[in-house]
What we know:
The complex is a heterotrimer.
Chain A: H1 3-21, H2 25-45, H3 47-77, H4 80-87, H5 91-108, H6 110-113, H7 144-180, H8 182-197, H9 200-211, H10 215-242, H11 245-253, H12 257-293, H13 305-311, H14 324-349
Chain B: H1 2-32, H2 37-42, H3 48-58, H4 64-75, H5 90-125, H6 130-144, H7 147-161, H8 177-183, H9 185-210, H10 214-222, H11 226-255, H12 258-264, H13 269-279, H14 282-310
Helix pairs in contact in B: 1-14, 5-9, 5-11, 6-9, 7-9, 7-12, 9-11, 9-12, 10-11, 11-14, 12-13, 13-14
Chain C: H1 3-18, H2 24-33, E1 59-64, H3 81-90, E2 92-93, E3 95-97, E4 103-105, E5 108-113, E6 119-124, H4 138-146, E7 164-170, E8 174-179, H5 186-189, E9 196-197, E10 217-223, E11 227-232, E12 245-250, H6 254-262, E13 268-269, H7 274-281, E14 286-300, H8 311-319, H9 323-329, E15 335-337, H10 360-370, E16 376-381, H11 389-401, E17 406-411, H12 417-420, E18 430-431, H13 438-445, H14 460-470, H15 475-492, E19 495-508, E20 511-512, H16 522-526, H17 528-531, E21 533-534
Parallel strand pairs in C: 1-12, 1-13, 16-17
Antiparallel strand pairs in C: 2-9, 3-4, 5-6, 6-8, 7-8, 10-11, 11-12, 13-19, 14-18, 14-19, 15-19, 20-21
Amino acid sequence: MSYFIVGYYALLIGASCLAAFYQKRGVFLILFSLTLISFIVGIVGGESSLWFITLCAAALALAAGTSFAFREFLVIVLPTELSKAVKTAPLTAAFGLFVIMTYAIAGVFAPIIAPFGEAEVISSAFAPADENMILGADQLGRDLFSRLVYGARNTVGLALTATICAFLLGAVGGMLAATIGGWFDQFMGRLVDVIMSVPSLIFALLLLSIFGTNVAILVIIIAVIYAPRVFRLTRAVAGNVVVMDYIEAARLRGEGTFYLIRREILPNSTAPLIAEFGLEFCFVFLLVAGLSFLGLGIQPPTADWGSMVRENATLISFGEITPLFPAAAIALLTVAVNFVVDWMLYRSSGLKS
Amino acid sequence: MSGVLSIVLKRLGLGLLTLLIISILIFGAVEMLPGDMAEAVLGQGATAENLAALRAQMGLDQPAPIRYLDWLSGAVVGDFGISAVSGASVAETIGPRFRNTLFLAAYAAVIAVPVAIILGVVVALLRDTLFDRVANVATLTSISSPEFFLGYILILYLSVKTGMFPAIAKLNDGMTFFELLDRTFLPALTMVLVVVAHMMRMTRASIINLLASPYIEMARLKGTPAWKVIVKHALPNAWAPIINVIALNLAYLITGVVLVEVVFVYPGIGQLLVDAVTKRDFPVVQACCLIFAATFILLNLAADVGAILTNPRLRHPK
Amino acid sequence: MTDKKQSDLIERMVAEARKGRLSRRDFMHYSLAAGMTASAASGLWVSKAQAATPKRGGTFRVGVHDSNTSDQMDPGKYQAVGEIQLAHTHRSYLTEITQENGLGPDMAVEWSATPDAKVWTFKLNTNATFHDGRKFTPADAIASLNHHRGENTTSAAKPLLAAVTDIKAKGDDSIVIELDQGFADLPWVLTDYHICMLPAKEDGTIEWESGIGAGPYKIVDHKPGIGTSLVRHDGWHREGAYFDEIEMIQLNDPNARQTSLLTGEVDAITQVDLKTAALLGRNPNIVLDDVPSGSAITLPMFCDTAPFDNNDVRLALKYAINREDIVEKIMFGRASVGNDFHVSPGMPYWPDIEQRTYDPDKAKFHLKKAGMENLSVSLSAADSVLPGAVDMCVLYSEHAKAAGIDLKVVREPNDGYWSDVWLKKPFVFVKWGARPTPDNMFTLAYKAGAAWNEARWENERFNELLLIAKAELDDAKRAEQYREMCQIARDDGGTIIPMFTNFTYARNKSVAHGGKLAASWELDGARGYHRWWFA
């Protein structure tokens, strides 16, 4: 038995005992169940699996530490109003904010951060990592890290614009339909049926083949594909709100449609919309990846995470990790955005407990 | 109840009208696509002469409206024509593939919907605990990779390395039901991973959205256990958005799985549609799109009816 | 190491390799040590000869790429790889490309021409039968050829037989083909995948709908876009067809193909994803076959459109491309470099003309001469033409930067590439299937006025030589004529030819073949189905 395993269990059991002594019930439960799990995993998977658990725990601790520090930083830096809100934010939300900010910085200052150009060929194909290229090279010998950084700019920019467009279209349409009702509601409902019933890849294929591919058209088409989903959701949520008595009261007061939407319906249906935003945002990356499957995505040599996953996807079958980096970049951002969304959801729900 | 029935009938009528509009739009879109069927069939081998001959043979020399009306007159009596490219009957080409698609979608849905709703309720109950975070991170990560990539990873670990499941979902005629389930497990699992996160998070969000309502407060103050508050009081009012997202995802399971079909070599309808669009094979494109549209309209109708049934207020629009 | 010594070494190594004394691995090792790029070696290895004698039996399961639900039985509309593979399995042709890449008999046993190569006589194999037992007759052969001729034909092979004026039966075992000009390559052209032999109907048309052919296997079950099962045709007229049954499965996804081969779902696959080919080859149960082919990548520039109407611009673009780098990075060494004329080293009459190399300075010189130092052009490509096509153009664009050329890469939609981009845009990416002879290729795509003259290039001397060489039956003279034509195309033509791709396919080690492989299509010229066996 190596020193590592002895130290590992000693640390866990010692920490559990301490937690039990100071009556920290939650901490104790987590630590002790981790000890028990480690016994089983250690027997089945051997020392390497314990290393894995240690690494995960260390990563988690690092993330938690960073988030904590970042939250404190925000509290100090931000004006009073905002800092009050941030102070009560859970660590996960702080983590989300931290990741989003990192991505934003990477995107804005890409040319400064990236050691090489987006399209610059500097070595042989799939060269392994060295002191120049911390993640190695891609299929053309371009620096993978630089392309990831540029990808933050291109991909996130595109996804953000497209999602916002989709939400403006869908949410406004949905609330109007719910408020006005009648023929307008029916018309919008059927229009949305028409768009949604054609599979999105086929729909994009048809439109892009007809109108040609450039970024502006890509954004519009993605917005048109996703707006109906937002519309249906908004319509459903707002539909529930519209039949409430306070809306009836507002109507009798003689309020106009836009007042109703802005002051009554919108505040009462933001939560599911925010939740949807967090997900739709990440679906855009995937749609772009899917489009590049049909040769319709972003023009080369522009770096884009979705296409980067797709280009080297087959390598994963042989245990090569090149395609995991862009996939991880997407996953990390998705998780981060949704952590922040969870926090906003919690705030908007008015829950105090 | 009769109110609901009349709504359903009205919507079905509107659904037919929607189908007609879709068929016109699809026809127009296929017409507007650069290149026509004859060029697509001959590909690199096209010359002016053989193109002209093939166009005449396929009837492409007729004006577009006449071709559409020809097709429509057949379609209204249930005859979807023959594929202009392969000469096979459209109904025969699509039939077995649509059955396969429905089977796979049902397989994935049977797993995904209960899992998503139960998980959603549980994480709403245990919100902001470690379990909530882990469930969220896991499902979010699973939807962050493109589905073909997810499929590759599953194939690597569950098929190539461990040999637990077959890597490709090749179907034979004489398969038993259990062989079929085994063969199609990996594509079904991929699709489950793709759709669970969305439905789970919507369930969680809709429930949390209601937790601050006075009647929930009331129930809690009464001393009702937390799980009972959620299942008995919050959930019934949260159904509308949840049902909507479920309908969306069910539709996705049927219409959006082209890439999963390609990765697992599953003979479904998605691949057929892509091939048909590439070849500009209008009758097949039209039939596939109409099937998708009909599925979609029915699912949406079911979602709306579900929303009405779960919220009595909607039954009496003021 | 001096250049002279180096080239000596390489020559010696090549000679050793040809004799089979040097393995591919060793060759790579030595050649890298000698500073040579690995790509130069790709042409040398086919596969080690296997001494085993063929055995009968077994079901050969093949994962085929590029096969679609729209695949069809009409031979005039064959286009996809899946169709071509199936065509060679259940149908037969008059002549074939042999494993030695020569011309061999199939349903025609022998042929002869008049001295001016204008009238050809083909003697048919009278033992040949169709799957339903019918005898193969001259009427069938005539109807099958006529399917691709005449005003109303919809066949893509029409240009191949454009020179044919009449086809007649002679006795009950021969046909006579008359042409309006001498055409020495006619027997080669008849190996084209479209021109298969089918049973004739009463009215002189062919019966293609039923799927009946005279090939080594007959179709039991055919589901387009899913797969086809076939059993041996007992009345087949030739040696071979060792497998009892064939199962072709559509596997369009590269990952699905490779995992199916790894997990034993199939015995062979028609295409390997080049990125992972080396990783796949490490598996002890898998054998890769790497066959240099005549399939060229071309980048045609419209010679009648500015700025490509200036030959200096064309030359600058030809010097600005680093072919070795492209072969290394895009094809992972599984291709041979091109030299801007459309004859591959494996084709008959290949002239040994000095290789054009990457030279940004020369490119700059030519740009200066043309007065276009800040040349900016767009190059269109789509990945459906060749996986990695867009990447290749991006790489080219990086090479061209060194010569001060701004090359913009345009990714075109996969869908509709052949109808909307090829022959429509002035500078595009094209892949050509292998054609058996230089004449065949030049007539299709380089002759003035040819429908597929993709570079709109017209050179008087070239076209003059083309007509002379076409009817020349003396091989030595013909070779000299083709050398001159290649030189003209290289230095004046509108087409950049960066490389000729290999066919790289893989099989389980239990599948054996004769050691040599035809270079016309995947899987031994699409004839592995009747040439290979289970060891």
